[in-house]
Design a protein that fits this description.
By secondary structure, the protein is mainly α. Helices cover about 60% and strands about 0% of the residues. The model has no long low-confidence stretch (mean pLDDT about 95).
Length: about 70
């Protein structure tokens, strides 16, 4: 069984699957685009509250980002 993707990779993949740019996801979630970039690159942790916000916008389970 493959290991789950790191949170940043999971975020980038889910965003791409929905056809969203970082800017579009930022507009949907109210999160700064810079923070989304940092999360995708592993420079910023994705907390539980943020994971829930991202998951709702990207139509996935929030736990994939933790």
């Amino acid at each position: 069984m493959p290991e789950p993707a790191p949170p940043g990779q999971a975020l980038k993949g889910a965003r791409a699957k929905e056809g969203l740019t970082q800017r579009a996801l930022a507009d949907l979630t109210g999160l700064p685009q810079r923070h989304i970039s940092e999360m995708e690159n592993g420079q910023r942790p994705i907390g539980k509250q943020t994971a829930r916000i991202l998951a709702q916008a990207l139509k996935v389970d929030y736990r994939v980002f933790l």
